[in-house]
C-alpha cells in the first residue's frame, strides 16, 4: 500500500464552510493517487457546547482541562458534531468517507495523562501500543477515515486526547506523511513572519522567548517528534490555501518544514 497522507485539521476551519469545501475538494484529488486520512480537533465547537451547558472551559499548557462531568459534552462535540460535519463534507466531495474516533478498535491506546487535567488522555507517540488493522483495512479498500481524537482506555474510560498528539500516534502506526493544518501559514517568528524550516533547537528558543506558546507549542513538539521518528520533515501549513496542498506534498516550499 502506498503510504497514506494524514491531514490534521481543526479550529476555525470547522466554522468556514467554503474553506471546508475547498480543502476536501483537494483531498478528493489527492485520494486518486494515494490514500488520505483526516484527523481533527474541534476546540471551537467544544467551547460553544460547554458554554451552552453553563460549563467553564480552562486550558493548561495548551491542553484542555477535562473534568469527568464535561467528558460527555466534549465527546459529543468532537466525536459527534465535529466529526459528522467533516464526514458530510468528505462525502459531498466524492470521498468514501467514514467517521471514526481513535478509540475505535483501540486504534490508539491511551491512558490518563495527569490527574490534574481530568479525562485528558496520553498516547505513546511511537504508536507501539496501537492497532492499525482497522485503518489499514479501510484505506486499502479506498475509504477515507475521518477521525476524532476521542480515545478509550483499557478500563473503558473515554479520554480527550490532544489532536496533534493523536495525529502523531496515527502517523507512526501507518508510516503516514503528516501535514498539520492551522489558520496561519505555518510557524511564525516574533515579527509574525513565516519560518521556512525549524528544528528542535530553534523551537526551544522560540518557546523560551514566548513566541511559540499554548496550542502551537503542542503542535510543534508533535511535529518534531514525528520528524525524528520517521526520519523526514513534517509540514505545518494553512488550510486557507488548499490549492497549495498538492505542491506541499510534492516537496514545494509551502508552510513550515519541521526537521527531526
From TrEMBL:
Which residues does the annotation say bind substrate? 42-43, 64, 160
Q: What's the Enzyme Commission number for this chain?
A: 2.7.2.8
**InterPro entries, alphabetically?**
AceGlu_kinase-like_sf (IPR036393), AcgluKinase_fam (IPR004662), ArgB (IPR037528), Asp/Glu/Uridylate_kinase (IPR001048)
Signal sequence segment: none
Query: Which Pfam family name is an example for this entry?
Result: AA_kinase
Q: Where is this site: Transition state stabilizer?
A: 8, 219
- Where is this chain primarily localised? cytoplasm
Annotated keywords: Amino-acid biosynthesis, Arginine biosynthesis, ATP-binding, Cytoplasm, Kinase, Nucleotide-binding, Transferase
Which reaction is the catalytic activity of this chain? N-acetyl-L-glutamate + ATP = N-acetyl-L-glutamyl 5-phosphate + ADP
Can you say what this protein is called?
Acetylglutamate kinase
Q: Which organism is it from?
A: Corallincola platygyrae
